[in-house]
Amino acid sequence: MASTRLGLKLAMALWATTALVALPALAASPKLDAHAIATARFGNDAPWYEGNIPLFESSDQKLEQIYYYRWSVFRAHQRDLGPRGYITTEFLDDVGWQREPYASLNDATGFHIQEGRWLRDRRYAGDYVDFMYEGGGNDRHFAEAIADATWARFLVDGDQDAATRHLGAMKHIYALWDDHYDFDKKLYWIEPLLDATEYTISSIDASGGKDGFRGGDAFRPSINSYMYANARAISRLAALTGDTATAADYAARAVDLKAQAQKSLWSRDFAHFIDRYKVNNAHVKYWDPIRGRELVGYLPWTFGLPDDTPAYAQAWKHAVDPNQLAGPAGLRTVEPSYERYMRQYRYEGTAPECQWNGPVWPFQTTQVLTGLANLLSDYHQDVVTRADYARLLAQYTQLHFKDGKPDLEEDYDPATGKAIVGLARSHHYNHSGYVDLVISGLVGLRPRADDVLEVNPLAPSDPTDPNFLQYFSLRDAPYHGHLVGISWDADGSRYGRQGLVMTVDGQEVAASPTLKRLTAPLARKAPTPIARPIDLAVNLVRSDYPRGSASAGDDPKTVHQALDGRVWFFPEMANGWSPGADAKQPWFAIDFGKPVSVRSAELSFFADDKTFAGPSRYRLEAWRDGKWVDLAKAPAPLANGVDRTAWAPMTTTKLRAVFDLAPGKDMRLVEMKVF
């Protein structure tokens, strides 16, 4: 107990807090109908969302629509690994550079944890952090800030044991990054491709303008900001355990890296953080600065690195200048003054591939908006305002639409807002954030390590602003073991109360007639335990058990997809097994390879009201004494949702589902899980 108190005290010393403003509880909060909202937004898949995601509504219907769309993207990218728990993927389907056999990539992990920390079911973020540090998921394939994201999750759920259990692995991985550390310059360097940002100024110019996919090693604001944030997180997490030596060591590392980044990566000429070359060749020279501004120069604010000075704040004028980084449809990754701006180098066949020499990327737009939210909440400056945050968020919101429907892709033309890459893999791409930008930015729920609830909305306060919100409401956001609500009503016509109201567990704790920072004391409650039922049917490697088989449509790829732990219902990307519309009572079977005790199953079916429909009924059978015997029946199953069936526990080596197809329709079994 003494070490815990000491750890918390030291952690608080490393975490700046604001003054407390306490107001007595006054009234119950306005309600949003969770069941009605989940059903309207997610149809038959509503049970996953209801009682799990924070509810949100606003006078901006597009903002509200994309908020819920991004939760559906998060849900679709959950992959169940069975005993290894859930991870979050970047692409819905497989890509050649993923970590096999999991389909994981470490570059998008920070976004995934930042989004997932707002779920009431803490398993998804928790399993993912465990995978990154226990399962080798953080293989340093790309630059990363996963320790920082783990700290960010702790700020929301307060689960100290979960946050600190991986300190040893965090320190080990931090030390491995010494292979990208220049001990003379005291800065980290990286090749842009391994920063997940190929074809930047440094890599293009290092090739003499001929390429830029590989090469261009540089001391970049990105990796140095990531490593600063990771060092700071390790320090704070160590402090929670009472490990004062580690806390002091990593705090000193963060301080030193901050100083070196400000000294060497800040360009007075550009008034911006920029790259310096690590590579030395016929085209570029070691330690020379790159010759242009890039959006990556804002990443220091994403992690709170820069000092709070007017000189550094001037960098943000470039983000709102239409001749510099502010494109008509989104934030440019490079300014148009760069001579190779928007030049297309790489193609997949004839289709343009990923580049960072001008296109708008949701990935980096998220980072910049996070940095802007930090600037507006934690710094003193007069360069940008809340109106800029709301405008850029609205611009980003619009990028989510394709032909009038939500479908976020990889990158976009900053002049038109049209997708550039647009490859099959790109649908509903998950290398960015949005939910957190709404919750912690626009609505302003600012997670803290102490027992204080802080809200600082970044919604514009001027009613004449085109992005002014007449009202908004966030409900049931999990925070420190409570459910927090934040509502704004400009004139009282929506919620019967004018102004900003902050609630905890349905009771008002602070209010203001205007949009302003509010704080209130909030004693934390112990986090609820995480339930972890294990899917016994997951198959990650086709040659392993459990194995799937089918009576018809037995293509090995599609049979495997029905057991690969992935569930989504987006029509743009097929996923699962189909027997064909002419099949007579087709079946799908699972051979576990050994006796297992089973008691329930979850079957997910896709329907599109055209070719595919859910089966009219199905029954489950178990292999017993050399024959199939009836186990359970499931009449009128759901489609585009999860159909659950349970029975008395029994032991078997095989299980199968036998289907009656809807007349004239094929079916698609997206996933079959067994527990």
Keywords:
five-stranded antiparallel beta sheet, about 675 residues, about 20% strand, alpha+beta, 18 helices, disordered N terminus
What is the structure about, briefly put?
The chain has 18 helices and 25 strands. Helix 15 (362-378) runs antiparallel to helix 16 (386-399). The model is unreliable at 1-27 (pLDDT under 50).
Helix content class: 25-40%
What gyration radius follows from the Cα positions, in whole Å? 26 Å
Q: Which regions have little confidence, pLDDT < 50, spanning 5+ residues?
A: 1-27
Per DSSP, the total helix count is 18
Overall geometry? globular
- Average pLDDT, all residues: 95
The major β-sheet equals:
6 strands, antiparallel
| Record field, number of beta strands | 25
In percent, how much strand structure appears in the residues? 15-25%
Would you tell me the structural class of the helices and strands? Answer: alpha+beta
Distance between the termini: 39 Å
